[in-house]
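Please produce the structure of this protein holding beta-D-glucopyranose.
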Amino acid sequence: MSPLYERSIQIIKEGQSSTGAYIASPNFPTYSYCWLRDGSFIAHAMDQASEFDSARVFFRWVGSTIQKYSKKIDEIEHRLDNGIPIGKDDVLHTRFTLDGKEVTEDDAWGNFQIDGYGTWLWALAEHVRLSGDNVLLLELVEPIHTTLRYLDLVWRLPNYDCWEEHPEYIHAYSLATVFAAFNSMNSLMDQLLIPSNEIPLRKRAMEVREFILTHAVSDGYMCKHIKPSQQIKVSAPVIQSGVDSSMIGLVVPYQVFSPDDLVMQMTIAKIERDLLRPGGGVYRYRADVYYGGGEWILLTAWLGWHYARMGRIREAQVLQNWIERQMTSEGYLPEQVSEHLLAPDHYEAWLNKWGPIASPLLWSHAMYVILVNEIKKAKQNE
Ligand code: BGC
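Below is the modeled complex.
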């Protein structure tokens, strides 16, 4: 194992609070919270590294945090049934303090992001598969059912995407997490590992998949955003938003589509053409201006994860090597690397606003750990 692997596990452990929550980044005040999205991937990395205790306490933390706010869901249902608008704090939040409270200091944050709720259920199912920890599922029945009910109510509503932007749209990535949540929980129910609820999950998963296929595909590839339908007009892909590297998620890990499906082959090829810097890392999307739009460590590992699954081990290895070269002298992986910015003019403004780029970012370390394990598995399967 490379020194960065051990260091990554250590940084993740140090970044896990006694409550079970993982801090997004210990050195970047704006990220001193736990996001369900980041946290679920971090827990999955810990599961892949056989650090099951760490993942287990995270899932318990998620469960108790969700239950604390579960009463909101009756109100959401009531509002949806009666055509009453849903306010920004009526929803379940995307991030919490490490002791599981909603963040009230920053009122302007886009809290309505559904993908973390899909991802935690996917990651929990993976935890059970990898660790055999069936008992945890029984402990978490209530928050599992709460989350499924919540997702069932809100998946068609516009909300913020995984980059916390564009609340006016519905997002293929976020829907993919919902598909994975419905599908994975359905299969645990089929195995009688958790009691079923009244939602026809398999059918719902297929509806979500169908929705993505019908509304997000344009020109043969997957668009990141879907404009919601208004009155008679149907939902439509937002073509000008182009491709986004998070679309890899539709194949790995959420398996909405097979990597052999033409639309995903075209989408990944477009990501490689438009967003993978030759010899470098992976950008989020062409119009990215956040800290000038650098190459993201976690997305570079994500593309490598896909390559490993496809048996493209040499290419996965090249990405792993690139990530290792980005390690700082403290053994940290940042969120993004700024040497080849897409929009250099925007860098300074973010630096002045929030300080230097988050480093270490626990999600970057997690995706690196996942990549190393996926390459190892791929080599064993050769
Ligand atoms: C990213 C999110 C992430 C958050 C914390 C934001 O800048 O867009 O995807 O969850 O940082 O890491």
